[in-house]
Here is the input.
Amino acid sequence: MSERPARRGDVDVEVVTASAGYRELIERLERRVRESQARAARALNSELVMLYWSIGRDILEQQQKAGWGDDIVGRIAADLRTATGSARGFSRRNVFYMRRFAAAWPEPEKVQTLSALIGWSHHQVLLDRFAENLAVYEWYAAKAAAGRWSVRQLQTQIHLRLHERQGAAVTNFEAVLPAADAGQALQAIKDPYVFDFLDLAEDARERELEQALIDDVQRFLMELGSGFAFYGRQVPLLVGGEEFFADLLFYHHTLRRFVVIELKVGAFKPEYAGKMNFYLNVVDEHLRVGDDRESVGIILCTEHNESAAEVALHRVVSPIAVATWQTTPGMKELPGAKPDPRELAELEEVRGRLVDRVARRAAEIERGKHPG
Here is the structure.
């Protein structure tokens, strides 16, 4: 039998699937599917948060109206588990979180905004830490949404007190940048930077620090914050036939600026500011294009004298920040890291109640052994 002739319009599938046009189509469709899945997940998360808030609000209102105590919450949780078949969603612990959430955020409009930012597990973390400080709660919710943080990443940033480090570096931004740009740039900088993923010897040199950061660039970028994209290390800058090398170069997509980072093992020295100013001028001259804005520099040292840093940046025309870096093993105490006296008092009170309970139980057992 002769081979069936190809009909007009027939194509060689293997040839088509190997073409650039076909690959682009598949990538475009895959991207559309993933975006749709992400939107559906966000919508589901938002709906769940609103549901839990409404349950918490109704329980809270009924308790206040009828004078019910907290014991009733456990019974409500049990009845909801039976009625819905959801053991996890309506655990006693989770229903208490619903009530706390409603108590912290009574306005439905605010909850609508929060529900669109982060999922329920994130809210549980924030309720545990910032139910009494809603401004910080909301700040972390926005940061978690912008950075697409997992629950674990959120917990890590809270543990490292990001809200106290953000914008804490010494800078000259207000003097050299427009007000709106200065505020935005300041929020992209922190002090100290905590490189808790590094395992450096005490006598590590700057190149070793640089190599260690690049070896784990993903976690380095996480600590730098959202918007940073790695551009290069030891980037050659040619001036008058002579080469100079910037330690690390990034591009910040939100600020639309190159960011030069100089790493120092040791205390800040005033001459570092002049060197950074030079690097920024060269980067702007050779790399800045289109609507890129003036580049920003970050000088990272292990310590700095704040007054000396401020004087060193005075009259420097390029935007520069001076901040410190540290690792967990040798980490200096972060601002506000001391135990809260109220928390210590609460712990002492709990300890006292436990001691009394154990003593009473021991007495009861002893009376049981020797009745009368």
User: Anything to note?
Assistant: The mean pLDDT is 84. The radius of gyration is 29 Å. The longest strand covers residues 228-239. The beta strands are 170-171, 193-194, 228-239, 242-252, 257-263, 293-301, 320-326.
